[in-house]
Design goal:
Length: about 100
C-alpha cells in the first residue's frame, strides 16, 4: 500500500478482517468497493481466489496482477475471456522497474 501510494497510485484495501489499512477504508469484498477498479493485485492462492472469481469478473477491472503464489490458471482464463488483462508478476518489482 505504501509503495503504491509513493508511486502515485490510490490503493483500495480489500480484506474482511480489517476495517482500515494504512489509513484507508478496507472493504470486505471486491464487490463492495463502490468505485470502478482499474487493477486488482492478487495475493491469494488458487484455493482462496477461485470462490471469488465471479465477483472479480463482475467488477470488470482492466487488469489483474497475480503476484508470486497467487497464480490461478482458471481465474486467468475467465478474466481473459472477459477482456481483462492478466499479468503474472510481482507488484513491488513492477513498481520499481516502471512496468506497473
Amino acid at each position: 500500500m505504501r509503495l503504491l501510494a509513493q508511486h502515485g497510485h490510490h490503493a483500495i484495501p480489500i480484506n474482511p478482517a480489517f476495517e482500515e489499512i494504512e489509513g484507508e477504508r478496507c472493504y470486505p469484498s471486491v464487490g463492495s468497493v463502490p468505485e470502478p477498479i482499474d487493477t486488482i493485485t492478487m495475493y491469494l492462492g488458487k484455493a482462496r481466489s477461485n470462490p471469488l472469481s465471479a465477483e472479480i469478473i463482475a467488477k470488470k477491472p482492466a487488469r489483474i496482477i497475480m503476484n508470486p503464489g497467487a497464480e490461478n490458471d482458471d481465474l486467468a482464463a475467465k478474466a481473459r475471456k472477459h477482456g481483462i488483462e492478466v499479468v503474472e508478476g510481482c507488484t513491488l518489482v513492477m513498481l520499481g522497474s516502471g512496468t506497473f
